[in-house]
Design brief:
It is built from eleven helices and eleven strands. By secondary structure, the chain is of the alpha/beta class. The strands form three sheets. The chain has a six-stranded mixed β-sheet with strand order 5-4-3-6-7-10, with helices on both faces.
Length: 317
């Protein structure tokens, strides 16, 4: 959130505040002389209290504050809030190959993806979001929808696919087909920790992406080369063994993002992951003019100040 206003009336503010202070000092001096001349000042002091002069500063500070509010209201005050835009449809293309169980990103790459994806769905509730998963082949979990509950359920149920390989090219083609019918902006958030080694070659997807004007945000997970991971218990008995996985193909992911005017992020921690997902959201500026509210607050402040003059804060002449 950002508050902005012009400074074109600064000189007027300085002049008015100075005048109020000068009038206050003159009034206080004149009032004291009158009290000494026409009455018993000590008696008045007892009636008003020993803090007669210190109390009198409060109403003047209230008037100065009201003046500041009035001048600010004349200075084009606006509040700018960055909010997620609803004019973009997203596809979350999530790698579910076995290497996603690698724990270099706490608690592991798949769980980190689950956490950030849930946050993304929650923050972009006004947008259509689709989800696909891929390993050796791509699987459509849902076309772009605004059903936050269903999207949340799908993400919570994400699990490792026992199909070997990483079919990034196929994931891109399937994702782009899900976005082909929308008139909104189109963005694929591609989350992977590997390199394309199955199915369609990535360079064969470029023309389709360009034709459909789809942006790709590539998120590469992991910070080590040749990661090793134990196969989970649920896959035991399926001829599964401990496997090693090559590092992400950063050059290809960067090229994929650059050609589609997207961005590539290399992720090595959960905080970096969350930050990248937030930056991947298409946002718009929500501008709120607060001139009326400042004037209203100034009026309330003045009324409050006048009310104080009926109490012990009044300067007794």
């Amino acid at each position: 959130m950002e508050i902005s206003f012009t400074l074109e009336h600064t000189n007027l503010l300085i002049i008015l505040v100075s005048m109020v202070i000068i009038l206050y000092l003159l009034s206080k001096k004149f009032s004291k002389k009158r009290a000494l001349r026409f009455g018993n000042f000590e008696t008045l002091q007892k009636v008003a209290g020993k803090k007669l002069l210190s109390y009198s500063i409060i109403p003047i500070m209230i008037r100065i504050f009201a003046l500041i509010l009035i001048i600010l209201s004349l200075s084009n005050p606006v509040i700018t809030i960055m909010t997620p835009s609803s004019d973009t449809d997203y596809i979350l293309a999530i790698d579910t190959s076995s290497s996603m169980l690698t724990p270099d990103i706490t608690p592991n790459r798949l769980e980190a993806t689950r956490i950030t994806a849930l946050d993304f769905v929650k923050e972009n509730y006004a947008s259509n979001i689709g989800i696909i998963t891929f390993s050796g082949e791509a699987h459509i979990k849902t076309e772009p929808i605004k059903d936050t509950a269903k999207l949340t359920e799908i993400i919570k149920e994400l699990n490792i696919d026992n199909t070997g390989g990483t079919a990034i090219g196929e994931a891109v083609i399937v994702s782009s087909s899900l976005l082909s019918g929308t008139e909104n902006n189109k963005t694929i958030i591609l989350i992977t920790d590997g390199r394309n080694n199955k199915g369609i070659e990535i360079n064969k997807t470029y023309s389709s992406l360009e034709e459909k004007r789809i942006k790709i945000i590539s998120i590469g997970l992991g910070n080590k080369i040749n990661e090793s991971v134990q196969i989970p218990k649920e896959l035991e008995g399926l001829n599964a063994t401990v496997a090693k996985f090559p590092s992400i193909d950063e050059d290809t992911l960067k090229k994929l993002s650059n050609l589609t005017k997207g961005t590539y992020y290399k992720i090595t921690s959960l905080d970096e992951f969350k930050d990248a997902m937030k930056k991947s959201t298409h946002q718009k500026d929500l501008i709120i003019n607060i001139q009326f509210y400042l004037l209203l607050l100034a009026c309330i402040t003045l009324l409050f100040g006048w009310g104080l003059e009926l109490t012990k804060y009044r300067v007794i002449p």
